[in-house]
Amino acid sequence: MQKILVIDDEEWLREMVQLALRQRGYEVIEAANGSLGIEIARRELPALILCDVNMDKVDGYLTLSALRNEATTASIPFILMTGMADNAGMRHGMELGADDYLPKPFTIDALYAAVEARLKKAQAVRQEAEKKLADLRESISMALPHELRTPLNGILAYGEVLASDSGSVQPGELAEIGQVLYDSGKRLERLIENFLIHSQLQMMAADTLKAHSLRGEQTVEAAQLVETVSRQEAEQAGRATDLDLKLQPVAFPMSQDYFKKVIGEVVQNALKFSKKGSRVSVELSESADGVTFSVLDQGRGFAPEEINQIGAYMQFERKKQEQQGLGLGLAIVQRLTQLHGGTLTIHSDKSQGSKVSVKLPKS
Prior knowledge:
The protein has a five-stranded parallel beta sheet with strand order 2-1-3-4-5, with helices on both faces. The protein folds into three domains: 3-106, Response regulator (Rossmann fold, 3-Layer(aba) Sandwich); 133-206, Helix Hairpins; 211-360, Heat Shock Protein 90 (2-Layer Sandwich). Helix 2 (34-44) packs parallel to helix 3. It starts with a strand and ends with a strand. The protein is elongated and about 90 Å long. By secondary structure, the protein is an alpha/beta fold. The protein has helices spanning 11-23, 34-44, 60-68, 87-96, 108-165, 171-205, 208-213, 222-236, 256-272, 304-308, 329-339; strands spanning 3-7, 27-31, 48-52, 78-82, 100-103, 243-247, 280-287, 290-296, 343-349, 353-360. 52% of the residues lie in helices and 16% in strands.
């Protein structure tokens, strides 16, 4: 039985709403003022709140604002009831986070329609969130053990050889072992680095002042940085000759450390999802309204639904093909772009390649 909280200083209206909603099978709890309503909402966590606008001391707007500012009550559907449903008041309520308005006087049918519409929408949102959580859990359960164990197994296995039987290792074999240890260590380093950066950006996104402070930084020698990082990624992928660079000498409005991460993740993705021998074009350009960094490949491309699902720990077709990483790369690029007031766009066709572009406004 779903619980609905009715907040109104008029007892007769509370009783009327309570009787009507109980006939529909809802459990109804009442509050005679905003202060009491806030306390009850915190304690009971109802499925829906109906609240009058005009009440003494703590009115409907203050009640709404207080509940929206707390994590446990922020997502509870909230309907404001008012006899003065003017445009300014409605706009103010919506800005505070109201889900709907129910103008007084209202009919029982209008009450039912408003309540059922909000509960239905909340259920749809909850189901979508649960689906995303299930997908996230599946992605983590598939990716994390593999990503940690694969490089770690290489380090442990060859470390044991060196520790227990180093005398029998030939010079040529020693070089091979050293390369495996180095590659495995770098893979773990990138995994840990991406995890830490993603966590840092998530916290920064919740702090307006910190997020705003990012927008004053820039990389002056941006073209040189793009060339250096792109060539490093191409060398590591064994595709140094597949790279095309078209770089204008512009300043990029992002700190060098963060821009380096953007370059590395986007270029690495292009190399990973395209075949050796196909061209990967890296561009840096300036226009009247901003600076753009973009990478074009001729790989397998993304489906529209895959582009919409870009996020942390979300990998594309993990079940069909082996991948390295936790799916954090594009999520980091996306978050960095958002924090800098820019846009990340992906134009892609299945089996025809992709173009990933990061565009930021000029500082």
